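Bumping with the actual sequence this time:
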Amino acid sequence: MKGKVMTETKLFDNTLERIDETGTRKAYEYLKAHLNKDEDWSSQVYNFLYCLAATSDLPDEALTWLEEAIIEKGQWYRPEVFEDEDLDHIRNEERFQLCEKTSKKRYEDALKEASTEFTLKERLEDNLLVVLHGNQQNNDISRAFWRDISIEDYQVEYLQSKELDSYNLYRWNDDGDGPKQLASAMKKTDDIGFENKVLVGFSAGCNTILRAIVEEKIVPDKLLLFSPWIPVSEASMTQIIESLKESVVEVMIVCGELDEDCLPLCKLFEEKANELDYECTIRYIQGLGHEYPEDLSTYTGAYL
């Protein structure tokens, strides 16, 4: 869990905290001061920069960041990104409109080439662990967290969504076809043959896994769900847990106590699991936000 990915993940968390505590201007200054100038910044970094500058009454800086991302670096975003109200102060500028037009063309071109990427090529170990990224992530980001985790008799592979977020970043939409993408990947694992198959999800990747169990009837042996995003009603949560129970799938959930969006969903999952007498392991981590725990191998080793 080293390098740029962890730095950006934690930096975004800290920046968001400062927006709530001191406003966008202070958050913007904090972000600029803590970015590594020697690294290539992701499209998400630039999104933070130009949105924060725009809402801090710094329109020229916002436009400059936007131009650097799109015109200079060749990046692009989903069209919805340009609808963000944070950009209202600059959207009538010619510079903004050129960036939007350029980005839209690149997005449309990328859509034509978009495909699911599953890293599995052959069987190297008896057991398999497949990691699904979260929104605004990719396989490289997942790999940065898992590459140093050694699990005896397991090979670790990665599944990247074909649903585009922005340049080199992807997402699992709540109502997208992620379950079908995952089911197709699991069919490949069946064809190759493994003794045990474990699915790991982070954030929206967890929702895709649970949807696939209900909608596509996939049956992994175990699930490891980190900071799980499970945007469903109580009735749907009941359906998910009944499917897990019926298929005898073991589940471990790890969620930070500071994860404001996902913690209530984990609590609902726990409540429904207890009601339905479904045994699962849930760990709430003090001081952790919406991210992987630092001692990731501890949880993985104990569970597998």
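The tokens above came from a reply further down the thread. The beta strands are 117-118, 127-132, 154-160, 164-166, 169-170, 196-202, 222-226, 250-256, 281-285.
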